[in-house]
């Protein structure tokens, strides 16, 4: 039985193409393993706060020494890390906003990048602690960034792959619904993305 964590970062709700693509990826996973269990995190409906002094101080304070305020500030981050540790597969819906990821997804990433929990520093460098997991990125953009001409302007997918690798998740597949704002491409963008899915 596989445990899938579906992270949704689009603000478009049911109209989101990355949500549709992410759900299609999960459907393919369920076809291979009908016992798959899925947990959803909708970052638009329930966003994580951007890190401030209280969160940072909480991260670096031993659990037994935290104040009640620090315990409250770190609770959602601890829960997010536990969900991530428990998952076998991540499906991340990630539309491109202004050449990068949504601020809600970045805030979530900031809450799961926890020294000694999801990564650690050693004499040989950084070691990701979330190993033996698979990640699928359902990426969406109005333009086309998967080609050689425009990929230099894609600051979303390379960042996500690097970040996941930093946490130890190096088996990452990316499926793109692109050209959704371009006449002549937008009509078939989703269909092409759905056809590209392999799990």
UniProtKB/TrEMBL annotation:
- The gene that this protein is the product of is azoR
Identify the HAMAP family for this entry: Azoreductase_type1
What this protein is called in its record is: FMN dependent NADH:quinone oxidoreductase
Q: Does the keyword field hold NAD?
A: yes
What does the record note on quaternary structure?
Answer: Homodimer.
Q: Which reaction does it catalyse?
A: N,N-dimethyl-1,4-phenylenediamine + anthranilate + 2 NAD(+) = 2-(4-dimethylaminophenyl)diazenylbenzoate + 2 NADH + 2 H(+); 2 a quinone + NADH + H(+) = 2 a 1,4-benzosemiquinone + NAD(+)
Indicate which residues the UniProt annotation says bind FMN: 10
The record's function comment reads:
Quinone reductase that provides resistance to thiol-specific stress caused by electrophilic quinones. Also exhibits azoreductase activity. Catalyzes the reductive cleavage of the azo bond in aromatic azo compounds to the corresponding amines.
| One Pfam family named in its UniProt record | Flavodoxin_2
Note on cofactor: Binds 1 FMN per subunit.
Q: Entry's PANTHER family?
A: FMN-DEPENDENT NADH-AZOREDUCTASE 1, FMN-DEPENDENT NADH:QUINONE OXIDOREDUCTASE
Q: Which residues form the Flavodoxin-like fold domain?
A: 3-197
This protein's UniProt keywords: Flavoprotein, FMN, NAD, Oxidoreductase
User: Which SUPFAM superfamilies does UniProt cross-reference here?
Assistant: Flavoproteins
A GO molecular-function annotation: oxidoreductase activity, acting on NAD(P)H, quinone or similar compound as acceptor
- Asked whether the UniProt record includes Ribonucleoprotein among its keywords, one would answer no
UniProt record similarity statement: Belongs to the azoreductase type 1 family.
